[in-house]
Known about the structure:
Layout: E1 3-7, H1 14-27, E2 32-37, H2 42-51, E3 56-58, H3 65-76, E4 81-89, E5 94-96, E6 111-114, H4 117-124, E7 128-133, H5 141-150, E8 157-165, H6 168-178, E9 185-190, E10 199-200, E11 203-204, H7 213-227, H8 230-237, E12 255-260, E13 265-267, H9 270-278, E14 281-286, E15 300-303, E16 305-306, H10 312-317, H11 319-330, E17 335-338, H12 340-345, E18 348-350, E19 356-358, E20 366-382, E21 394-405, E22 414-418, E23 424-428, E24 436-439, E25 442-443, H13 450-462
Helix pairs in contact: 1-2, 1-7
Amino acid sequence: MSIIIAGERSGVGKTTVTLTLLASLRRRDRLVQSFKVGPDYIDPMFHQHVTGRPCRNLDPVLTSETYVQQCFARHSLLTEYALVEGVMGLFDGISSLVNSSLSPANDKGQITDFASTAHIARLLDLPVVLVIDCSRLSGSVAAIAHGYQSIDPRIKIAGVVLNRVGSDRHLSLLKDALKPLQLPILGVLRRQDNITIPDRHLGLVPTAELTELNALIDRLADLGDTCFDWQNLLPLLKSQPLPPPPNPPHSPSSIRVAVARDRAFNFYYQDNLDLLQQLGAELVFWSPLEDAAIPKDVQGMYFGGGFPEVFAQQLAENTSVRDGVKTAILQGMPAIAECGGLMYLCEQIIDFEGKSWAMTGVLPTSAVMGARLTLGYRRAVALQDNLLVKAGTDVHGHEFHRSHLTLTPTKPLFETSRYDCDENMGCEGWGFPANVHASYVHLHWGESREIPEQFLKECRTYK
């Protein structure tokens, strides 16, 4: 059946509850596949660290409703248990004109909770475990639970997890309030002072930077062994997937693609990497931070997002790699650079303290860190033929950054607008040199197989 861990709002502890469940399951030597609703990169890193299996993003904006169902079915089939972590509050989604019978519509015909946790629950027909932050309430917990239980009859609330419970007396009040609802309490987490995951300007600090992460996971597993009602939870977690589509065949490997993956660059959708391999690419993972040169005998480069601004000094000091990247690109090697990767191809990064650090200099612009957060789904229409798509192609992506560029390209890649309305967000993206695709817009290729096909075609031409 599997379950979705949902919150009554953001910040209630969904990720902590999810990791606690995953850590305790792994301690029991259970094979478990995790999923994350939405475009997030960092939460899936924590899932993978615990389970040893890549976490899969379920996002109907970046892909489609059908792709979400197929992705869940395919990967759930491979394990005994499956678990989905939601996003924001249970019904927090976006307005969309997409035709779907699974989401409620307003009087204008717009779907009002598209891509929400509730939408994914309906799409996959999964029960919801609702996490409630009890730190500032007692009897009112019943009103919250009742509201979520009744607002959409298509959503089955399998039970609640009470988080940040202060004392036995506090727990007693919560239980008394919930008793008339006959809603199972599937877990109780007390207020924890020794379980904290540090964060920074774009969310949690990624796993590769946390030296004490294994000790934290051990504490979560200890907590999970005692705080959950496993007798009722395990049957819910048991994977009973939808009929899976056939796995795409792998083409013989003939193209080597250098994928930057270290503490500075680690924002990748696993499905994108899988597609490259299925289409015949050999992925060569390397570090612009630590390595002395780019990998040998590669025909393309892929720089994902991440935190190059945090490691700007170390990136700047690795001059042999900076020069090697620039030389390879100027000689025609195809290169994809998303967000943090885009920043690395700039002339410099100017950090939050105003210090300037030299980057590769492929693009004649600088990336400047600032307080303003650019966040949201984007519709992006290609303004010209470029490395990945033809002019006029409409793609859906996601932006999430606190930097801006000092110079915009004269011939940008995309004209962008907000996904949920017609608000124009301006033009962006560098396609010069022509073998470069550098953009702030993160793309998931799951429904757009032609994107990696086009990239590898260019890599073969370069070879």
